[in-house]
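Technical note accompanying the year-one report. For the benefit of new consortium partners, we illustrate the data format agreed upon in the data management plan: each record pairs a sequence with a structure-token string. No post-processing was applied to the example shown here.
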Amino acid sequence: MNSPWYSAAQLAQMKLAGLPGSEPGMRMRAQSENWLSRQVPGKGGKNGLRTEYQPPRAVLDEIKSRRMSEVFEAQKQLPASIDATATPCPAVKKHEVFRADGAMVKRGLIRRVKTEAQLNDVDRARRDASLVICQAIESAMLLSACSARHAMIELAERVLEGVARPELIDAVATTYIKPRKTGQTVSSLVSRLQKMYAAYGQGRSEGDMARYMVPGKAEKHGQNPIHVHVFLIFYCRPNRPPVSEAWRAAQGWFETQSLPCPAVDTFYRIEKSLPVTLKYRGRMTGAAWRSLLPYISRDVSMFFTNDLWVADGHSFKAKVQHPIHGQPFTPEVTVVIDWVSRRVVGWSVDLAESTIAVSAAFRHAQQQTRCRPLIYYSDNGSGHTSKMIDCPVHGTLARQGIAHETGIPGNPQGRGVIERLWDVTIIALARTYPTCTWKGADKEAVRKMLVEMNKKDGLGKAALPSWQQFIDDCERVLGWDGEYNREHAHRSLDKRTPAQEYERRLDENAADCGPTDAELDVLWMPEVRRVPDRGLVRLFGNEYSNTALVDLLAEGEEVRVRYDLHNADKVWLLRMDGRYLCEAEWNAHKRAAFPVPRVEQLREGRADGKIKRGERIINEAKAELGNTIEGEKYLEDITDYIDLTPKMPVRELTAADFMDAPAEKQPEASYQDTVMWLSGEGPDPRENKNVAAG
């Protein structure tokens, strides 16, 4: 109520101190004290007119104070947040300029605006508290017919005295941006309320009362683009230089460009502000770089058991006894798992990574499951991608109709389902051996162990696990009913073990068409393509023949030669479409005195490679022992043993000294003596030095 005019009934209802509490008594007091009065249209009067009175100044002040108390103290609830909408102002004042970023420039001052996406929890609480305070000030102005400043003073006094509503006290405390150490005063709080109410009014004129309630901040423009560019040039390198080294290397670049070099702290700030995918690009490559990028989790829930097989090889992280010569060495373990259930379905152990090791593991998996998977997934290693396995014509996978998929080179994350297997199986087994070489083991202890192992009669070889012990431990861990398949519970399998998940995900409608033992013996015999020549087939230095080949094949026709890895006595010949032709036996035209199986040839080739590498190391060591001359001291030591005094008078050399001496004439034998000697009847004419010329 902005007007200072009140009716006698209204004044009586207020129950003001020192004034009558009834309407007739209030009318008599007003008439006796000659209060200003006026006639206004309204109910309750004669002829449709009502008399209103203007109380004295003291009474008006008491009315305002009571209105303030109703707003600031007697208010039961204040809204936590306000729908800040109002009718926007149709025109913009000349001294107000709005920028493209939403900020308003008013009389040279920039009032920035934070969008809803830029607000945090503190900003939202400050915005809602400011709206509550501004609404309370506006209500006090309307009810007590006072100015905004008077309402702010009343509010500030009540807040500092602690007599205002708790909601208003909390709202004022929430809007503190930088609280003063000495505490707030009435004047400082009023000044802050004025700024707050001015922002409130500006936002209301634009249709959004909360628009300017949260003060915006100037956007950080970041570092100098040139500094960032130079930082990336000298910091993002594969040798991974530290920030200080990159800064020292960049000083020359700034000098050549005639630019001032920034301080080293600038490079440190740039390093902290850049995302990892930017500052490590070039410092990290391959799998390490991909480990920083987002990844896609592969879902196999739509597949059944034995639909997807994954294989990989792993160098055992411990030394074991070599099965042939008994020296310490690192074996290679190849494992095939079912992706859907994570069950180990097959495994093999070999001296090194090879096609034979992969073939043995896959064959073992088919022997245990009697299944042909739909897809075989592996890396691009030579053991998995050799022609024996991966050839689209005669490869062991193509002959069974199994699709072979390979991962991206240098990206082991794609086969993470099997890469995580090693930590809980093979590496855990290696840690139980005293010859463990795992990277997490103590380096000094590993060094001492290797020194003992390399000694000829070292005591460390007594702790060397035997080959049979290693095989038994692998079977215990990786076997069909081994510890991993039977006991290891997977989080991704809802705490089920691989064996339980394997049985749960079996396809009951699938027909059992797995390979038999006889089929496995044939399927896992590798094949090559050859062109027979006159009934002969040459394979790995051996020659195999069958006289019927000349009549069975057209000239220049290719055949598929299937051979046994462990028996070189014969091979099996098939046409290119897979029809059986005949067997070819090893014959006498072979190069070796005895047939050499392919496994033996591979073993000999591996041994030759080791010998050559060892000889190269020995030759390098001998070259490093070459004689060196240590200046004049070496010459002085040699001259002690050389007699430099001439033994005969020295004469001058002439041209005759450089001419060749005449050749000595050799004795000749007669023709008759030579014929008799050749027939065996006469002596050797070369023994007679006085043979006359015949």
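Partners are asked to follow this layout when depositing records. Confidence is low (pLDDT under 50) at residues 75-95, 627-661, 689-694.
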